[in-house]
Input
Amino acid sequence: MSTEKPVNRWAAAGPLSRMRELDVVWMFVKRSLLMQTRFKFAYSMGLAQTASSLVIYGIIASLGRSIPGIGHLPGGYITWVISGLVLNLLLNTAIAGPHEALIDSYWSSRLEMILSSPLRLPVFVTGMSAGRYVDALISIAIYLVGGTIFLGFAWPSAPGILAFLAVLIPAMVACTGLGLAAASSMYTLDARDGEDPIRFAVTTVSGLVAGVYFPLQVLPGWVQWAALLIPHTYALDGIRRALYGERAIPLLPVHHYLPLAPLVADALILLIYALIAIPLGWRLFRYGLDLARTDGRLSRWL
Output
């Protein structure tokens, strides 16, 4: 009888180089795009639905009702809502990416194979999430081009690029942390039906009260304070300020109590949010995978 130990060929191969990891990320992006556009008619209808939403907002703007607080914003309501839609789509993609990456690999029975390969877990999550950003950018292009040509969306004349990045980067990092925590619920809460409670709660609140469709000032006071619990509120406020100036955007409730310029306050709060959300989200994400390895729920067996 042979006493030779089985050889772990993946371990013998060693870790991937950084260039090979970039190749893997690009492979995941191409796969995601192929999957999303496989049924071309359905994909085209989805893009048409995105375009149709612009018609709705154009009709709302044409009604001529003034919305408190945005009288100094170039383009008025159209600029407000399109800038909100674009940013909200980016932030919600950051939240949805890790969960969708995990659940796609679970239902296609590829998760164990990927986790046992030399591919590092952060590269896997990044690669599987990146394809969602490409799809989001297509929708963003529809919003911006259609809004500019047909509805009078006003591009910023002198945007503060550094201020814009100082708000956008920590906002995306914070939402990625929330997305990692949301992905962990696939195993900690058995949320495998395409939705999870964290993403559902954050995206629902962001759509209703974070300032995507209208300023917070039209809402009751307690609702305005509740909106401050999610990063979207600060991101929307800060990025609009960076692009269109402080005077064009009404203050959030928290701005009245901080000895900082509103834009600085938004960036600082988002940075703190990101520093907490990323390590906590990653810890929960790893905990969910370790829990699944322990009780045998890592892959789909039926």
Remarks:
- The two ends are 35 Å apart (CA to CA).
